[in-house]
Amino acid sequence: MNMNLYGHDGQWLMVDCGVSFNEPLVPDDLHTAEVVSADPKFISDQKERLAGIVITHAHEDHVGALPFLWRRFQCPVYTTAFTAEVLRRKLVQVGLADEVPVIVMEENQTQKIGVFSVSWLALTHSVPEPFAMTIDTPAGQIFHTGDWKIDKQPIIGKGFSADRFKALSKTPIRAMVCDSTNALREGHSASESECYEGLLRAIEVEKGRVVVGCFSSNVARLVALGRVAKQTGRYLALIGRSLINMVGAAKATGYWPDDIPLIESAHLGYLPKEEVLAVVTGSQGEPRATLNRLASDTCFDLSLDADDLVIFSAMMIPGNETAIMRLVEQFKGRKIRTLQQQDTALTIHVSGHPCRDELSQLYSWVQPEIAVPVHGEPEHLVANGQVAKLSQVPRQLVGRNGDLYQFAPQVCIRRQMVKTARIALAR
C-alpha cells in the first residue's frame, strides 16, 4: 500500500496512495481489517504544503486509498487516461464524482506541480498504462520507477523500450527509487504472452467447466483469457464487481479488443459445461470474494461439479498462504480440481515485477548516483540494494517506513523521522 512523499523547498509531492486487504493494523495482531491504508496524518496535518498527488498506475496498492483519503488532502491528482478512468469510477462510489480535479497526462509529457517538474515515462507492468517518472527540482532529479518489468511482448500496449531510460544517464539522476518485489529472484520475469500460451495449453484439454482466479486489474490476463475462450470454443464471463469495473474502464479507454465478447455471468448455468470459462475474484482467499462462494457452493451464477477445474492465475501474496490453501482444500473436498503455478510446468501466471537481471539492466541504463529500494519486505529491499551495488551504483540507501531519505545537500537516511501507522478504511 504505497504512499510516497517527496519534499523540496517547503512543498511536498505525493506519489501513489494505495490500500492493502485483510491485514492487521498493528504487527502480529490476530484481528484484521478488510481494507487498510497508511495513516496520512503527517501530510494531512500540513496539506497546504501538498502541491499535488501523482498516481503511477491503476493497481489497488497504488490508487485504492485515494477516494477515501482525498478530503484530507484536497489537491489536484495527476495520472494517465486509463488510471484516471478507474479512479473516476471509484470517486463516484464515495460521492466525489465532481469534486476531485483529475488531470490526465500523456507519455513523455512534463508537468510543473509546485516546485516539482514531473515527466512521465512509459514502461511495462500487468495493467494498462504503467508509468515511471522523473521528478526534477533545483536540488537534483529523481527517477521513480513505480511497478515495472521488462516485457518485450505484452498482451496490451507496446513492448518495453530501453531508449528512454538509457537517455536518463545523460541527465544525471541523483537517486533511482526502485521496485524491489522480485529482487530475490534470479533471472528475468516471463512475458504475458508466455502466460497466454500456458493458459491455452492448460484449458484446451479440459472437458468440464474452467474457472480462473486472477487479479481484477490485470487487464492483459483478462484479454488473454478472452482469446483462450475463442480458441477453445468457450464463452467468457466475469464474476465479481471489480472485474466488471476494470473491463468497463478498459473498454472506455480502448484497451478491450472489439473481437473478444463477454457473456452475462447469469447465463453460465445454461451452457454445457465444456463451454464455460469464468474469470472470478478471490485468488488470495478473500472471504467474501467469488472463489470462496464457489468453494462453498453459494455462488448465485455458477455451481461447480466434481472434476471441474479451478486455475489460480495469480501470485500467492505473502501472508495469504493459509487462506489460499484452505480454499484449495475446500475444492478438493468436493472433488473439484485446482491448478496452481507450483503444480505445473505450464506458465499459468507471470509476475509484473522485475527479477534481478532486469534490475541490473535498468540500473546500468540509468546510472543513478544513489539507489533507493522500495516496494517489498525488508529482505527484498536489501537484495535490491545488493543488485544496485553489483551494478556499479555508488550508493545504496536501504530504509524502512517512516525514514527520511535526504538526497541533498548531504546524502543520508534520517531514521524514523515520521511516525507511521495503518488505518482501516470503510468500503
Automatic annotation (TrEMBL):
InterPro entries registered for this protein in UniProt: Metallo-B-lactamas (IPR001279), RibonucZ/Hydroxyglut_hydro (IPR036866), RMMBL (IPR011108), RNase_J_2 (IPR042173), RNase_J_b_CASP (IPR055132)
SUPFAM superfamilies for the chain: Metallo-hydrolase/oxidoreductase
Keyword entries, A-Z: Exonuclease, Hydrolase, Metal-binding, Nuclease, RNA-binding, Zinc
CDD domains assigned to the protein according to its UniProt record, in alphabetical order: RNaseJ_MBL-fold
Residue ranges of every copy of the Metallo-beta-lactamase domain listed in the record: 1-199
Organism in which the protein naturally occurs: Marinomonas pollencensis
Statement: the UniProt record of this protein carries the keyword Lipid metabolism: no
SMART domains in UniProt: Lactamase_B
GO molecular function annotations of the record: exonuclease activity; metal ion binding; RNA binding
Pfam families on file: Lactamase_B, RMMBL, RNase_J_b_CASP
Organism placement in taxonomy: Bacteria, Pseudomonadati, Pseudomonadota, Gammaproteobacteria, Oceanospirillales
Record-given protein name: Ribonuclease J
